[in-house]
């Protein structure tokens, strides 16, 4: 049975040398020895997670993480890896026994050591600066937000607002989209996708520009993306998704980080984040993209096999006729 009081465990990890910054918020149940729920995000810009942990709630951390993910500013691969690692360790008896023991004893250095062990599995050996905050709270207050801190507010500006009315909305607002997100109409369907790559003849992702036509493939299991896949009849009999053409609407390059927004059909848009400039995206040339099922290759192979079979049969017939002809000539010479 879940305990009535749980720990709210929050931390920030800052590694300036590699420009990797992590924000984590979790609910630790000391009775069941499990991490009930958590949110984690990895970014390449420290300002995105610049919030004081003292007085911040798990709900506040969740709001910040969701905002960053919505805007596509997270390091997606690293975030996914951290989610997997914390999920696995959150169910590990050995890890949780140590974590809860150190929290109860308030041994912060040992808690940071455990955290860093997980991080090192995701991003290699590093010695980040880890800030830690944890407190015992009532379970029914998990989803309560704190003072409504924004990830873009500094500590000074927050302190100047301490006397503001407590009735102000505590949820961090998403607000009006800015930057390249502003190119997506508010009423548009937003889908998930990936680039179809072409290492030889493709265009580098950081050289894409508005108006370029490329080949993409819808991915993900969210209702919007699945609905578009069904409506466009993109799923093949073997379950793979057919690649389709898309038009680049907006791009933004920040060193090695690239954000691209594409338009797929009418009022269907997608945004993708890539951490490498070296990948090359396949350009759409007007030809029908070949799906992963390899149907075209199979057809070509079948035709080649048929032609080879016909040639073999013809050769066999010619040899047989030649043998018959030689036999008839031999008989004729013998009779003479």
Automatic annotation (TrEMBL):
Residues 145-172 are annotated as: Disordered. Residues 155-166 have a biased composition (Acidic residues). The chain crosses the membrane at residues 313-335. It comes from the Bacteria. Keywords: Membrane, Transmembrane, Transmembrane helix. This is Uncharacterized protein. It comes from Leptospira saintgironsiae.
